[in-house]
Design goal:
12 strands; TIM Barrel; alpha/beta; disordered C terminus; two-stranded antiparallel sheet
Length: about 500
């Protein structure tokens, strides 16, 4: 049996253990770039990533009724195609003339007037037919910073109109959404109502997209308690429980399965870890976070794409989400770039891991493929050479989720991953062209707020605790949960 066949059989077995569909599209890693300059696109090509996600802002193209200027996006898309990159544009942020009146003083986040978004989506899809194959609908509509309309307005005027418009402009194009943010409240309700509204209208999304900002056990200081808030895998696949009692909200996967969409393809179109280049501890943990995302993606046939947030730091703000620092009045790659350790890690994973299109093997891809805490030939005893196709038996996809207290190093025999520092997501936009996303500061502020109040969306009324919690805190939590259940 050849290397690729052996690896795929191992991953298929893991998928069957999780009850997932065994039919999978090719997997890939990608990056958020906002509105990338040519040097940004050069850097993405260097990484080996096939896709870039861009901010395709309606208000920039049609600032006034009856006029359109597509020149910025004509050039951007052509620049990407010249480098062999596929563009995933997110269509959002309506101009004032096409929107409901502004109620919160924030620009371009109002609900579109009936019929206007559909016309814009149709025009965009038709213009770039043959160049753009996948389109995203709005950005994080469950956050008021990005959509101040009602959920009903979103379903009627964004979700349904967007699918109709793109399919009318380009019947072969794929429509992706709903681009919900896991840091917002009731994202499960938005997803559930959205897919039901589309089904009632005889429509569907080709790929479900979702943004996850949450850590793993490896990225938690002092361990993790069930009352500390959701981990990444809780938002993705399994609702968090405390001592067997469900808390928080149903996960992305649980909502999809409940709606008969167990085989639906999923892209995580935003996730990331903030790490200033001067902080060696943070940059090392950024690598750990990216690694864990990739490892979990490879286990799941329905999760095919991951877009990391983001490609480079914004030098004007304190928060540093990027994989590199970009400097100079006229930047060029690589001369004007300082690369963080995560750059080399991702580049190697793409080049070596067969399921990401690489030409290497599990024992030389930088990933902990079997979850034993030992990585690649020289450290994992199950690897006898760099070319070995397997590090050992793959853990089931939900192996990283714990119920109750978990401390670094716990359950090492079953899961060698619980050992590192906490993730504190912050905000930042970077790499934009002169016409930038006007709502980026609001987006980043919302993300930073969610980072410091990790339990706000969990459904649990207790305060977050980053370190070990006392027994009295656990008893208080149980009392609150019991009262909550009795009140239903």
């Amino acid at each position: 049996m050849n290397t690729n066949a052996s690896l795929r059989l191992g991953l298929l077995a893991a998928a069957l253990l999780a009850g997932a569909s065994a039919t999978a599209a090719p997997k890939f890693l990608a990056v958020n770039t906002h509105q990338p300059a040519p040097d940004i696109l050069d850097s993405v090509k260097d990484l080996g990533m096939p896709w870039v996600r861009i901010d395709f802002n309606w208000y920039q193209i049609q600032p006034s009724q009856g006029t359109s200027d597509w020149s910025l996006f004509d050039q951007l898309i052509d620049d990407a195609k010249q480098r062999g990159l596929q563009v995933f544009p997110t269509l959002g942020y309506a101009p004032a003339w096409a929107s409901e009146p502004d109620a919160d003083g924030k620009p371009n986040n109002q609900a579109p007037k009936p019929g206007e978004y559909q016309k814009f989506c149709q025009a965009a899809a038709a213009r770039y037919q043959g160049k753009v194959t996948h389109w995203g609908l709005w950005n994080e509509p469950n956050l008021k910073d990005f959509f101040e309309g009602t959920r009903q307005q979103w379903k009627d005027r964004v979700l349904i109109e967007g699918v109709k418009g793109i399919k009318a402009g380009c019947p072969s194009c794929k429509v992706l959404g709903p681009e919900l943010a896991s840091i917002g409240g009731e994202y499960n309700v938005w997803l559930d109502e959205g897919v039901k509204a589309l089904k009632a209208a005889g429509l569907a999304l080709d790929v479900i997209t979702f943004h996850i900002y949450a850590g793993f056990l490896e990225t938690k200081t002092g361990g993790w308690q069930c009352w500390d808030g959701d981990l990444f895998l809780h938002k993705l696949e399994a609702q968090r429980t405390c001592f067997g009692i469900p808390v928080g909200v149903p996960s992305l996967r649980e909502v999809l399965v409940a709606n008969g969409l167990a085989s639906q393809e999923v892209w995580i179109t935003e996730t990331g870890y903030t790490a200033p280049v001067s902080d060696a501890n943070a940059t090392a943990l950024q690598v750990t976070f990216y690694r864990r995302v990739i490892e979990e993606q490879l286990k799941r046939p329905w999760w095919t794409g991951s877009f990391f947030y983001e490609i480079v730091d914004d030098n004007l703000i304190a928060d540093k989400w990027g994989m590199a620092v970009r400097t100079g009045a006229s930047p060029s790659f690589p001369a004007s770039y300082q690369l963080k350790p995560v750059w080399a890690f991702v580049k190697k994973a793409i080049a070596k891991q067969p399921l990401l299109g690489g030409t290497g093997a599990d024992c030389d891809d930088g990933l902990d493929n079997d979850g034993d805490g030992k990585i690649d030939f020289g450290k994992d005893p199950e690897c006898s050479a760099l070319s070995d196709p397997s590090e050992g038996a793959v853990l089931p996809p939900d192996a990283g989720v714990k119920d109750g207290p978990a401390k670094p190093g716990a359950d090492a025999a079953l899961d060698g991953r619980a050992r590192e520092l906490s993730i504190v997501p912050e905000g930042g936009a970077a790499g934009d062209r002169a016409a930038s996303d006007a709502v980026a500061p609001a987006r980043d502020g919302a993300r930073a707020d969610a980072a410091v109040t990790p339990v706000a969306e969990s459904g649990c009324g207790c305060a977050a605790a980053r370190g070990a919690a006392s027994p009295s805190a656990a008893l208080l939590l149980l009392a609150l949960l019991l009262l909550r259940r009795r009140g239903r």
